[in-house]
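Adenosylmethionine-8-amino-7-oxononanoate aminotransferase (Nostocoides vanveenii), 442 aa
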Amino acid sequence: MEPADVLARDRGLLWHPYAPLDGPPLYAVTGAAGVWLDLVAEDGQQFHVRDAMSSWWAVLHGYRNPLLDKAIHDQVDRFSHVMFGGLTHEPAVRVAEKLVALTPAGLDHVFLADSGSVAVEVALKVAVQYQQALGRPERTGFLALRGGYHGDTLGAMSVCDPVDGMHADFPDYVPAQSFLLRPPRAWRAGEGLASDPVEVASWITEAERVVAEVADRVAGIIVEPVLQGAGGMVVYAPEALVVLRRLATAYGLVLIADEIATGFGRTGRFFGSDWGAVVPDVMCVGKALTGGMMTLGAVVVSSPVAEVIAASRHRALLHGPTFMGNPLACAVASASLDLVVAGWAQNVPRIEAALVTALSPACELSVVREVRVLGAVGVIELAESVDIPRVTRAALERGVWVRPFRRLVYTMPPYISSDADLAAIGAGMVSAVADVYGGSAS
């Protein structure tokens, strides 16, 4: 099909994420390589643009990466899929061994899931099974943070923000959970993160009160470490992670770190949990796990938790997706992890410095509330909701693909982005905001 046919035939046929069948404007992809996308608009205009989104934070190594392509091609020549029930294979073993080696010491057991959202579902079930195995069947709920986002499936929805989240229209469908206030905001300060100590102390006091109140009916605590992604790209105080680790241990709760967006170096540390030097009981990873090549998530579980489940009535973790351990996904994930390890420590600080420079002119725009950068994440927060179609098109005209949401125009660029790419992405974002809302930034 020609791009015009693709766009016309898509309309009214396919749902796109959080979008009606009849809009907003779509762009047909005709090619992708490195950091570049080739797009065609509904009016026929063609764009050759830098992808500032890493296709929702997953394509760390760029499109058509030869090492990732080779990993998939090589595995196709062996076998593309086999059931994981009663069978195993080298790609699954390799990627699991690498995950255990890369995650904090003590996380020794891996469950391979279909996606990040499914990984969260499995992590929640791990916590519930753990409590039941210890003779605490009443502990079935969870404690989460306001502002959090953990996915679109049922259990994951329940631990997303219950008021401001995207799932607020399902109040009688999802389980009711307990929530802590957002931790105090933090900002980059030298090599670390700083926050208001008075606000932190107040939050800790409230967290201690809430956990004591709900501990006898919750199985665990789930958090996105340091950076809340779809909840607003908000950076918060690492001290909150330390306190939640302490409270989880004190009350026998399972601490779940949802590292699907924050893992593999994106925040400037290999895992977001590293900002607080915290080791969770369960860690979820996804998105960038395969370098954006295929869907795959993983749940990495501590030995103490796994051993309790192994000694329980069922002995098994009660989950088993059809495509669990898909060999193609495992093979490319193993290759992606090698690339991450080889380059993230050099690239992420470079990206952070470049984004600080490139986005700082946005501070001069009256519509801009705040500009913030952490690791390979850059955010322009507006004082009002983003006009998504207009800002998207304005950025395309400047050679950049962005996907704004709420009040945010943001970037999470591929790690292979050059300094020139990053300068162009930042300039395109700033100019797009200026074009739509008025003003100029030098």
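The chain is about 35% helix and 20% strand. The longest strand covers residues 27-33. ok done for today
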